[in-house]
């Protein structure tokens, strides 16, 4: 029996889509609801599940084809036509060494998250023949948003690696094969003997496995590496920094120009490192933002005297009651929420020819990590107290630095705050985080002479920058927003009175 795979309903006013990726090819076995392909429309990405179990038949619409609603994409042969599937399983079992005496277990790509269809294998922590325990980390994958560690689904011996380091795999790919059972014990001593000398048994904090592997390869002592992870945990990026620290920094070439020739001596002192998928995505999104939005930045400054005084007065009581430190970010978050209510277009986004106004504030808080800038989102920040905001910022900031944020935690923001002041920035123009229409840049607090009531006094001042999409936010709205933020911070009592 043959079952047709057709284009699903794409949504209101959407009449066609492009076939982006096929996850299966003719002859592959498929299960019910297993993802067959991915379609892209001008608004969303749509995954197409298998309507029945069987064997993949003919693919009618190839990758890159444009198809309409209900168009035929492919066919699935049900029943006896699914015979190729057992053969594939038999091949898998045959791949295991005969001496293993155990069953074969497939190591598959774990769930990568909504709209993520592929990943790059960055590091294998085990090699063929190594003994592994259940849930022990086998390898690390990089997507365009986060790093994903792949645990062993069972205890046994790693018999085959199907996806080598650097290869790109789709969301349903097989990474390796384990042989489980009694035979797994045979190679355990050898695997233990092969453990790298950089293992951190003597340390209280376990370093990232990829960092240990890189230190062993480059002959770097962990004592000479400054860890940036949780509790000083050494990450892969820390090892890379330590490896290139003695070399002079090369001036970057203009993006549009080819790389200039270098001498053999200079080439010997350079190191070429492939951009991570996260860094590639950051670069692409930032450039897309500049190319798409009519971005403009307006500036103001705020006297932080009252906020600093209020914080100093209550910080000990705040910590004692809520178990979290009172920082400046909760004040800025509250001030922005207050201003967004008065200037809702800054909290809106463009969708085609529509403007979507958000009757909520999902606040993105930009955070620097060893692998790049990420923006975890605090949902419904307009409904949270100072303590709730501080707890959310602390928790998400820690998870961001440790690379533990899920993709869901970085999606859906309606406005963003970026604090370059923690790095000493005095003035900058932040780039929009699309599809958002506004981002507030905080900067360093610096004592400056100011005229107050006709007298020159020294005050702790901070420059504020609001970058906004001029397509939907007018200059008046942008200036009003910054003025409201300034007023709320210079007199924090206004936040309590909702003024």
UniProtKB/TrEMBL annotation:
EC number(s) stated in the UniProt entry for this protein: 2.3.1.61
Cofactor: (R)-lipoate
Positions of the Lipoyl-binding domain: 2-77, 104-179
Catalytic activity: N(6)-[(R)-dihydrolipoyl]-L-lysyl-[protein] + succinyl-CoA = N(6)-[(R)-S(8)-succinyldihydrolipoyl]-L-lysyl-[protein] + CoA
Domain spans labelled Peripheral subunit-binding (PSBD): 206-243
Entry annotated with the keyword Amino-acid biosynthesis: no
Pfam families, per the entry: 2-oxoacid_dh, Biotin_lipoyl, E3_binding
PROSITE patterns reported in the protein's UniProt record: BIOTINYL_LIPOYL, PSBD
Keywords: Acyltransferase, Lipoyl, Transferase, Tricarboxylic acid cycle
Entry-linked NCBIfam families: PRK05704.1, sucB
Name the record gives this protein: Dihydrolipoyllysine-residue succinyltransferase component of 2-oxoglutarate dehydrogenase complex
Native species: Cognatishimia maritima
